[in-house]
């Protein structure tokens, strides 16, 4: 398996392969079911969950509505606290900025906190091309990096691996990157965690540059927040001399007080904990320079657009920018549970990925055009979303965009998208339906004809429809059209049947 | 055009269709949620803190003021600590009965030197009962963030009931965002293997919390 998502096949093809992999399905079923029940219990502990969800939604919507103002406020606050702010319009620019900043320190290796933004821009690969080695330090990211694999879940990128596979990867690959795994390593989770601890400790202790993302940036104070479990985040955020944080522009919240909402909803939604083991908050170089040498002396914040402003321009789709990357929607999704994360062809898999990737990247590629269809529209994702993103609504909206084309914004420019190929039959059927519903006479004639010939109807569809009717019953045509029945009986009021 | 101007311009154009929302932040953000969950006495709040700390595998002790030096000495001995790092402003009385050498955290101390130390003893800024969380803010009795991270054993003293709040909203009210903050809920853990929680990765694998004072 290659470490990149470039050139991915469309979702149905990728999913077909994944669904045939019984180990993968077993791993995913086990992990998602474990977390589902726990999440429900953690959420049930708070009887004001609905109000917290509503407040989170409103805070994010308000921020997005005034994003220009809050971005400038973040810049001012971080600069005032001793940090340096950089702006990156796309992935290439962000990667160039980070590579230049690392080179200016004279270092050729960095330690990384798990970060979706740096995954999204493929920072590790870009740094490698410039001779800089990036060490992932989150356990799951480490498993993915050592296994030359791709992430398949937002929170637990190695969710597709079970403990036995993880042991095998550690045994065979750790020595390539540093301290080898113990000879007698077993597959108990505690031993695997211990092996990661020993492997990474030397890297933490010598690291001069740390790279992170952030879960939240508070505009009024310039404070960044990183939520984690293992302590690898704390290591990367406090031990190096230089810290570079790459943060999507939608991560802003206006005020310090706003954290009281998300610090309650995020841990319960993601790992189903009342609180995650470690949360770090820092403001510029507040600890490093002004305090007593607590933490990095140099801090850089890279504000990343990379398709976010294009998403913001879509009045239905912009709600996807409320996402706080908790991954609750992945864990409840029946499609994700069976198809796995890789089939989504993006670092953002699952329901949120199906609406985020086609907006951040556009719907031109085969995989992105297929993602809005990677759903049964059951709505479980919307139910669990802690910021109430109506994912089914956005999915349907994006399906319309794929089939019909229309106005959109790409790279800041207004464009008119052409209808995608491959939906000719669907479009023809919709056009026929439109014609029939606007010609009542023809509709009536057609319905009567269908009723009279009902004994002759086939039970399965011919041609390309065969696959659809292979596992479904065709709806039976009634003996009498509804409108005829209504006219004859006046809705059954006369007692007639 | 700089990327800064480009991004800000894109944001403004993206929002051109939205009706102007001149309502201030205070009107838009309706905080219909609770400041804290349930009503409890101060003593009961401390009990809840102890329960939730223990639920996430922190080891909880209670002691009265006069017994603290003895308790800390006993905990460090039981852990087999051969050295203990001490924040600059920790009351000197607290570690008066400890036999193991005390290591001062100097600005010049390296992370590798810290890695040789077995334990750390600190105070805290605030503790959150509903979530079983202790928060450190780098005050003199807590020290730099690294000293509670690199050693494998952290003993944190919480003055009860003064330093205990019920909820996350109450904790944020007490904290200063300008200070480097670390929220700690149990020992280091991971859910990365089959989404099941396992304690003990990079941070201290043993977290002991001493609830000082009260009943």
Question: Could you please describe the fold and organization of this structure?
Answer:
- The complex is a heterodimer of chains A (497) and B (215).
- Chain A has helices at residues 11-19, 22-44, 49-65, 67-80, 91-105, 116-120, 123-129, 139-146, 163-177, 189-206, 232-238, 259-270, 286-290, 308-312, 328-332, 334-339, 350-361, 366-370, 380-384, 391-404, 424-437, 440-452, 466-469, 482-489, and strands at 84-88, 109-112, 133-136, 209-212, 216-218, 223-228, 242-248, 252-253, 278-283, 298-304, 406-410, 413-417.
- Among the domains of chain A are: 46-306, NagB/RpiA/CoA transferase-like (Rossmann fold), CATH 3.40.50; 439-489, no CATH class.
- Chain A has 497 residues and is of the alpha/beta class.
- In chain A, the strands form three sheets. Chain A has a six-stranded parallel sheet with strand order 1-10-7-4-2-3, with helices on both faces.
- The longest helix of chain A has 23 residues, at 22-44.
- Chain A contains 24 helices and twelve strands.
- In chain A, 49% of the residues lie in helices and 12% in strands.
- In chain A, α3 (49-65) crosses α12 (259-270), α9 (163-177) runs parallel beside α10 (189-206) and α17 (350-361) crosses α20.
- Chain B is α/β, with parallel strands linked by helices.
- Chain B has one domain (40-212): Rossmann fold (3-Layer(aba) Sandwich), CATH 3.40.50.
- Chain B contains six helices and twelve strands.
- Chain B has helices spanning 3-14, 25-28, 42-55, 68-79, 111-114, 168-174, and strands spanning 59-63, 84-86, 102-104, 119-122, 126-128, 133-136, 153-159, 164-165, 181-184, 189-193, 196-199, 206-212.
- Chain B has a six-stranded parallel sheet, sandwiched between helices. Chain B has a four-stranded mixed sheet with strand order 8-5-6-9. Chain B has a two-stranded antiparallel ribbon with strand order 10-11.
- The radius of gyration of chain B is 21 Å and the shape is globular.
- Chain B starts with a helix and ends with a strand.
- The chains are: A alpha/beta (497), B alpha/beta (215).
- At the A-B interface, α2, α3, α4, α8 and α10 of A face α1, α6, β9, β10 and β11 of B.
- β9 of chain A pairs antiparallel with β9 of chain B, so a sheet runs across the interface.
């Amino acid at each position: 398996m290659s470490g990149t998502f470039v050139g991915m096949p469309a979702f149905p093809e990728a999913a077909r392969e994944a669904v045939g992999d019984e180990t993968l399905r077993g791993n995913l079923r086990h992990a998602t079911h474990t977390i589902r029940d726990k999440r429900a219990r953690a959420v049930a502990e708070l009887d004001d969950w609905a109000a917290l969800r509503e407040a989170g939604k409103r805070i994010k919507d308000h921020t997005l509505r005034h994003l220009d103002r809050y971005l400038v406020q973040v810049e001012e606050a971080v600069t005032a606290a001793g940090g340096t702010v950089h702006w990156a319009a796309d992935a290439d620019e962000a990667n160039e900025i980070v590579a230049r900043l690392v080179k200016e320190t004279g270092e050729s290796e960095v330690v990384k906190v798990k970060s979706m933004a740096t995954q999204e821009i493929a920072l590790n690969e870009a740094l490698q091309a410039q001779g800089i080695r990036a060490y992932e330090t989150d356990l799951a990211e480490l498993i993915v990096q050592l296994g030359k694999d791709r992430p398949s879940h937002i929170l637990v990128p190695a969710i597709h691996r079970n403990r036995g596979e993880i042991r095998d990867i550690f045994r065979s690959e750790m020595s390539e990157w540093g301290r080898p795994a113990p000879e007698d390593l077993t597959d108990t989770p505690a031993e695997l965690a211990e092996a990661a601890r020993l492997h990474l400790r030397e890297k933490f202790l010598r690291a001069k540059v740390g790279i992170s993302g952030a879960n939240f940036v508070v505009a009024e104070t310039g404070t960044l927040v990183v939520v984690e479990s293992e302590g690898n985040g704390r290591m990367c955020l406090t031990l190096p001399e230089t810290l570079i944080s790459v943060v999507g522009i939608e991560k802003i919240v206006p005020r310090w007080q706003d954290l009281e909402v998300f610090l309650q909803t995020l841990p319960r939604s993601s790992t189903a904990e009342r609180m995650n083991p470690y949360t770090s908050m820092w403001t510029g170089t507040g600890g490093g320079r002004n305090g007593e040498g607590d933490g990095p002396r140099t801090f850089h914040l890279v504000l990343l657009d990379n398709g976010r402003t294009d998403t913001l321009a879509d009045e239905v789709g912009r709600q996807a920018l409320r996402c706080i990357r908790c991954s609750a929607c992945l864990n409840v999704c029946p499609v994700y549970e069976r198809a796995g994360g890789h089939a989504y062809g993006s670092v953002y898999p699952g329901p949120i990925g199906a609406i985020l990737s086609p907006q951040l990247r556009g719907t031109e590629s085969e995989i992105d055009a297929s993602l809005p269809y990677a759903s049964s529209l059951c709505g479980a994702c919307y139910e669990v979303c802690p910021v109430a993103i109506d994912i089914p609504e956005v999915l349907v909206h994006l399906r319309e965009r794929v089939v019909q084309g229309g106005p959109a914004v790409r790279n800041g420019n207004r464009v008119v998208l052409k209808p995608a190929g491959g939906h000719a039959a669907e479009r023809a059927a919709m056009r026929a339906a439109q014609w029939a519903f606007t010609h009542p006479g023809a509709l009536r004639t057609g319905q009567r004809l269908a009723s009279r010939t009902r004994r002759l109807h086939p039970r399965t569809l011919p041609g390309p429809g065969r696959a659809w009717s292979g596992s479904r019953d065709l709806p039976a045509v009634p003996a009498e059209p509804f409108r005829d029945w209504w006219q004859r009986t006046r809705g059954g009021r006369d007692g007639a049947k | 055009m700089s990327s800064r101007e480009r991004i800000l311009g894109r944001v403004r154009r993206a929002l051109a269709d939205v009706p102007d929302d001149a309502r201030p932040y205070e009107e838009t953000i309706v905080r219909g949620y609770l400041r804290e969950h349930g009503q409890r006495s101060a003593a009961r709040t401390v009990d809840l803190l102890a329960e939730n700390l223990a639920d996430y595998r922190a080891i909880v002790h209670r002691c009265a003021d006069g017994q603290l030096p003895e308790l800390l000495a006993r905990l460090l001995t039981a852990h087999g600590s051969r050295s203990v790092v001490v924040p600059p402003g920790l009351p000197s009385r607290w570690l008066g009965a400890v036999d193991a050498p005390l290591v001062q955290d100097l600005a010049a101390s390296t992370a590798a030197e810290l890695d040789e130390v077995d334990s750390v003893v600190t105070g805290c800024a605030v503790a959150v009962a509903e979530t079983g969380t202790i928060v450190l803010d780098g005050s003199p009795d807590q020290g730099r963030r690294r000293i509670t991270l690199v050693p494998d054993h952290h003993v944190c003293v919480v003055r009860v009931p003064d330093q205990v709040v019920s909820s996350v909203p109450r904790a944020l009210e007490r904290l200063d965002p300008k200070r480097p903050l670390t929220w700690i809920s149990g020992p280091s853990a991971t859910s990365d293997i089959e989404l099941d929680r396992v304690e003990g990765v990079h941070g201290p694998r043993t977290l002991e919390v001493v609830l000082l004072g009260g009943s």
